[in-house]
Design brief:
The structure is a single chain. This protein is α/β, with parallel strands linked by helices. The protein contains 14 helices and five strands. The protein has one domain: Rossmann fold, CATH 3.40.50.300. The protein has helices at residues 23-51, 57-74, 79-82, 98-112, 159-164, 177-192, 196-201, 213-229, 239-244, 246-257, 263-269, 275-279, 294-300, 304-317; strands at residues 88-92, 130-131, 145-148, 170-174, 234-238.
């Protein structure tokens, strides 16, 4: 089955974030968050130092870079609280079917609320119903769904904070990291101007690439930890499940967000379940490659050595596989 855990409706959650709390409660929560963040950072730093291999300078630099990136996020990214007035969040891994799922959901919502669907599945008009919460404003009465590739603070893994400060329900779309990396490189290789070998090694400092193996490891580890600590509020949906049974994926997502979609609305979205149908919805004026050609992937000539490197790296650094068993390297 595409969705492997029961879904829990969030309809009884009245208000998210700080609504209904006294100033004293808010002050206490903020001080507690600062203290816990400091302690988490110190424990993580000590753990990294203890685990460093003094004979491997590359590994040492990588671990320090990843540690610093995570700590910056921990003290700055409270996306789920910042936009707690939305109906739900669609958080997606890069090159993991974002345009596809978002467009089908947008069409289903548009049909249900009798409004116009987005004109295209790519470009600026793709965000008319689901998009960046800072800029997307759906028609009045239509559920507001925020989409992002964000990696939020570790604070969202704390059960006590979840009990104190609620946030809207989340659907996280992920894809097998090997395939996502290949798709990402095919899409951006001309912009990057580096070989696939060079791209695979990645950049732990995040200065060279929009996403690389280190980005995917951080995304999986953080959202895996959040989903583990908030199972009723975070649904993990895999790209392969979406491919296998798009109807079940759409129903599960709507249920998670507690938005009612009739069979007719779901049926209207399933018109775009095929690759050819999605290609026809792309904005011709949008230059970014959304659906790489099969030939482009064949031309890349991914070797067994490439895949072995990916698998060794994941085995060493991936703590949450989100349902993807680690493959032998």
């Amino acid at each position: 089955m595409p969705v492997t855990r029961p879904l829990v409706s969030c309809s009884k959650q009245v208000g998210y974030g700080w609504s209904g709390l006294s100033e004293t409660s808010i002050l206490y929560a903020r001080r507690s968050m600062h203290y816990h963040l400091f302690m988490v950072m110190m424990r993580a730093f000590l753990k990294k130092v203890v685990s460093l291999d003094g004979n491997n300078e590359d590994l040492l630099r990588t671990k320090i870079s990843l540690f610093l990136r995570d700590r910056r996020v921990d003290v700055s990214n409270f996306f789920l609280y910042e936009f707690r007035n939305v109906s739900g969040f669609l958080i997606t891994g890069k090159n993991s079917g974002t345009h596809w799922l978002k467009y089908m959901l947008s069409c289903a919502i548009a049909d249900e609320w009798a409004v116009s669907p987005p004109a295209f599945s790519s470009g600026e008009m793709a965000h008319d119903i689901i998009g960046n919460p800072r800029t997307t404003r759906p028609p009045p009465g239509v559920p507001r769904i925020a989409s992002s590739h964000t990696i939020p603070s570790i604070a969202f893994t704390w059960p006590w904070l979840n009990r104190l400060l609620k946030h809207p329900p989340v659907v996280v779309l992920v894809r097998d990291i090997e395939e996502a990396l290949i798709s990402h490189y095919v899409k951006w290789q001309h912009d990057y101007g580096v070989s696939f070998d060079d791209y695979l090694r990645g950049d732990p400092t995040a200065r060279r690439f929009k996403a690389d193996i280190w980005w995917y490891i951080r995304f999986f580890n953080r959202w895996g930890a959040i989903a583990e600590s908030r199972p009723d509020n975070v649904l993990v949906l895999r790209y392969e499940e979406l491919q296998h049974d798009p109807k079940a994926a759409l129903v599960a997502t709507a249920t998670q967000w507690n938005i009612g979609l009739t069979d007719n609305s779901i049926k209207s979205a399933l018109r775009y379940a095929s690759l050819d149908a999605m290609k026809a919805t792309l904005d011709p004026a949008f230059s970014e490659t959304v659906i790489p050609t099969p030939q482009a992937k064949k031309d890349l000539a991914v070797t067994s050595g490439h895949r072995a490197y990916i698998r060794r790296t994941l085995a060493r650094h991936l703590r949450h596989n989100l349902g993807y068993p680690l493959k032998p390297s």
